């Protein structure tokens, strides 16, 4: 991961790395203006000069800015500092759905891990919130395209947040599809 604790991007100070994926590196940071924790997503240095990746990153920011739903992680802004471009987003505490599913694995007599799946009383509220988030995105003509358990976080209060719209694609409005 490229940024170290103490690095500043405008009013944001990097606290710690959170994770990395194909489209970015994510860090916990502190917003010194508003005194709150945020998530900062930056393109890895190896991709920062790629015009296509920069365009996708910009598109992710625009997609997130067009969505306003309690089950979709909010974007607070797009920050540029030197050669670094960063999405400033809501920091969502809690495990990913992948982590939650992994916690429900058991071992059979052959010592192979098997998923028992989430209990129905846990799975249904999670599924409902994911569906609500996707419905809100679809109403804005946005398809997520990378929906997976690792891109869904579950806050301690049970609120589900869909993350990572980096591969999102705008759909043609329904009226244009039939024309």
Name a few traits of the molecule.
6-stranded antiparallel sheet, two-stranded antiparallel sheet, 179 residues, alpha+beta
Q: Class by helix and strand content?
A: alpha+beta
End-to-end distance: 47 Å
How much of the sequence lies in strands comes to 25-35%
- What is the number of helices? 4
Characterize the overall form: globular
Helix content percent band: 25-40%
User: What radius of gyration results from the CA coordinates?
Assistant: 18 Å
How do the strands of the widest beta sheet line up side by side?
Answer: 1-2-3-4-6-5
Low-confidence stretches: none
Query: Order of helices and strands, N to C?
Result: EEEEHEEHEEHEEEEH
The counted number of beta strands is 12
Q: How would you characterize the largest beta sheet?
A: 6 strands, antiparallel
What is the average per-residue confidence, as pLDDT, rounded to a whole number? 85
Q: Could you walk me through the main structural features you see in this protein, from its secondary elements to its overall organization?
A:
- This protein has four helices and twelve strands; from the N terminus they run ββββαββαββαββββα.
- The chain has 179 residues and is an alpha+beta fold.
- The chain is globular.
List the helices and strands and how they pair.
Layout: E1 8-9, E2 12-21, E3 24-31, E4 36-42, H1 51-66, E5 75-81, E6 84-90, H2 97-102, E7 105-107, E8 113-115, H3 120-139, E9 142-143, E10 152-154, E11 160-162, E12 169-170, H4 174-177
Antiparallel strand pairs: 1-2, 2-3, 3-4, 4-6, 5-6, 7-8, 9-12, 10-11
